[in-house]
Structure formats: C-alpha cells, structure tokens
Amino acid sequence: MIRVLFVCLGNICRSPMAEAVFRHLVEEVGLAHRFEVDSAGTSGWHVGEPPCGGTLRVLRREGIALGRKLARQISSLELDQWDYVIAMDRENLAALRRLDRRGASTTRYHLLMEFAPDLGYRDVPDPYYEGNFDLVYRLVRAGCEGLLEHIRRQEGLA
Ligand code: 4NP
User: Going by CA atoms, what residue is nearest to atom 7 of ligand 1?
Assistant: First the structure.
C-alpha cells in the first residue's frame, strides 16, 4: 500500500478537494487497490465538519465523488505512517515539520505545487475568505496529476 495524506489548515476546503481529486485519478488509471488516501488539518478549528460549500460545488461540477469526509486534525503520532505527506502551502508544511519531533523523516513532506511547477505557484491559496475555488481546483488538479506521475515513477508503478 502506498499511503498519501493531504494536509491544509482546516481540512474543509483544500485538502478534502485534493484527497477526492487524487483518489479519482488513481481510480481512473486502475491503481486504487495500491493506494490509501486521506486528508487532515493542522488546526482543530473545524473538526467534525463536512467539506465547505465551494469544495463540494467544484467537485460536483467536475463529477468527482467525495465520499463521506469529516474534518479531522493531524496527530504527530500518525506522521510516520504516511509515505507521502502533501501540504497545500508553506505555512502548513512548516507546521508539519514542527509536529514531527524526530525531524528525521523530512523527505516524506512535500508542497503540492512542487508537482506542477509550470503553473508558477508555490502555495495553493487559502480559499476560506477569498472564495477562489476555481483557481484552487485548477492548482489542485494539476498538482495531483503531477504527484501521481511522480509516485508512479518513484514506486515503479506502470
Ligand atoms: P482549508 O481552508 O485549510 O483549505 O480547509 C480553511 C478553512 C478554515 C479556515 C482557514 C482556511 N479558518 O480560518 O477557519
């Protein structure tokens, strides 16, 4: 099993979207049985809440299933259970690194936009106040496509 965790601040907008998009891509190429995919927030502000309206709207428009997702906060204890921990922005990446007290396993942490460098973004912008869900979807989609390619190369998946 290849274990992939997407992380944002609240786990209601960006990381649930990335989780759904990545799972959709993995299913499209027939690799669902090889992956475990989840998402979490670095904050506990929205624990137990469903994804935000903008994320639900974009996913519905794109025909991407979300499943039953309720926000949860990441725990330091789970960090080394994930092969790829993908942060939506630099702030959350820094929070993850602070949480990983051993600091020994930093290679598992990435920014999602590392995998779509041509778009010229380092962070997926926080849509909570801005409401820029179309941009967020474009970035998340491209990042997830690049991430899947990266993992397939890395793990030798045809
Ligand atoms: P997310 O968006 O990190 O993409 O889930 C946010 C959700 C909530 C807040 C900020 C960003 N908040 O400030 O409560």
Answer: 10
Query: Which residue's alpha carbon is nearest to atom 3 within ligand 1?
Result: 9
Read off the DSSP letter of residue 73: B
Side-chain half-sphere exposure of 69, counting CA atoms within 13 A: 28
Cα–Cα dist 16/71, whole Å: 8
Question: How far apart are the CA of 128 and the centre of ligand 1, in A?
Answer: 5
Nearest CA among 19, 69, 71, 13 for reference residue 47: 71
pLDDT category, 104, cuts 50, 70, 90? low
All structural domains of the chain: 2-155 (3.40.50.2300)
Q: To test the ligand 1 pocket, which listed residue (13, 49, 86, 123) has its Cβ within 8 A of the most ligand atoms?
A: 13
Active site (annotated) includes residue 8: yes
Question: Which letter, b or e, does each residue of 19-33 get, where b requires 16 or more Cβ atoms within 10 Å of its Cβ?
Answer: bbbbbbbbeeeebee
Give the span between the Cα atoms of 22 and 17, in whole angstroms: 9
Instruction: Name the pTM for this structure.
Output: 0.97
